[in-house]
Amino acid sequence: MVIRVKTTRRKVFEHEAPARVVAVLGGQLSEEGRWLDSQMDGALSKFLKKTRFSGEFGEHAIYATDEVEVVFFSLGKRRGHTLEQVRAAGVRLARLAARLNSRDVVVENFLADRFGKKEASYALAEGLFLGAYSFDKYKSNPARLRRNFVIAQGFGPAVDKARLVSEGVYLARDLVNEPPNVLTPVELARRAEALAAEAGLEVNVFGPEKIQELGMGAYWAVAKGSDNEPRFIELVYKPEEAAAGHLALVGKGLTFDTGGYSLKPTASMTTMKGDMAGAAAVIGAMKVIAALKPPVEVRAYVAAAENMISGHAYRVDDVLTAYNGKTIEVLNTDAEGRLTLADALAYASEKKPAALVELSTLTGSCVVALGRQIAGLFSEDESLARELARAAEEAGEKVWQMPMEPAYKRLLKSEVADVKNVGSREGGAIQAALFLAEFASAPFVHLDIAGPAFAGNAEDNPNGPAGGTGFGVRTLVRWVERHA
Ligand code: BES
Ligand code: ZN
Ligand code: ZN
Prior knowledge:
7-stranded mixed sheet, Leucine Aminopeptidase, subunit E, domain 1, elongated, binds ligand BES, alpha/beta, 2 domains, about 20% strand, binds zinc ion, Aminopeptidase
């Protein structure tokens, strides 16, 4: 859906639009709803009585005549609301609007009396944008829907900001949704370069020679099995006034993960185009950061590769030397993400960032532990962990902190090298995090987004359709903003 969102200082009943949305709280019309109702001689309250709203969140009804369509949207009980519900209402409204006959829809600024016009407008607009997303570039006959929303008594600058943030989420979703034959590492680098040119970011891209020359032996081992060359991507945002120090972001960028010689069965291989969702989140966040211009330098890194089988692919039993000199015994070629990340983390650490946040679709184990809507958060730095948890909470993305149990480190001890790339099956997500920590030498947070990054069906994505969710973009933007 092509969506526009604007604001007006007028109330819902004062704004001439063929479609109007009013809130229902505890089964009763909101104040905006009552204004509109009195203008319509009580038609709305009569209709509402007939529909017997139970008052549950998300319940809705449409009252339609030849002139108007009025949507009743229930926000649940009268009290105890959160901004997250306003955002969720926006998501549902965007989808609901597809069923309306009118293009122009004026919406009450939900719960603005409780949260203020600004916060309420932001949450509603963000929900509308996120919910309106669709990926149909490969459809011959896409549904060409257009909806123009106007938030009554809304706050314009908040809507502008929600639009900017959503554009970063859209970019991340688009990158994840692109099929792997299109979005190769080379193409991912091209898209990062296009973003850099458009947004005014610095960009550096390395190919196979430079990757080997630098000594990124773990990353190169994963990459070398594919005919699609790897690309190491660095994006840099510099604030107008030179700042001391910087923040670093790292995203896992496997444009496709077959598992390599530890081959995945077909059922697990489908959706593995999404194994670059960490990279997508980082690139999407950089787009937003370039637009919001916080007073802090941010450097983003992606070691993009494809995990394939061939005569030059790496094997089980191989021993690799990472960028920081540590040696790794490969026991499973499907634990490739941590190998590419080992070098990216060591490289990012070298520039001494104040903090290093990394996102990856790293383990099925994390999906087993936390399900499809919650990311695992791992850090040996408690205060940094809290910063990220808070940013995620404010952004409306669900994360849950997991332990970095030191006793499990011995599970990664190797007979022939410094570490091995897999330990035991139990607590796999924790071992993966402990492995990564061996290569990060700055204050470090790892977010395992294997669950929430990709939705197999729309039910798994509370903020949009099936496919890439753009998970992480909003958390990263919040965190960087707070740090500034
Ligand atoms: N990309 C996968 C992890 C994954 C699984 C992401 C499900 C999204 C959904 C990763 O490279 C992988 O294959 N991990 C292995 C690790 C194991 C071999 C130790 C896994 O989780 O099975
Ligand atoms: Zn894998
Ligand atoms: Zn993977």
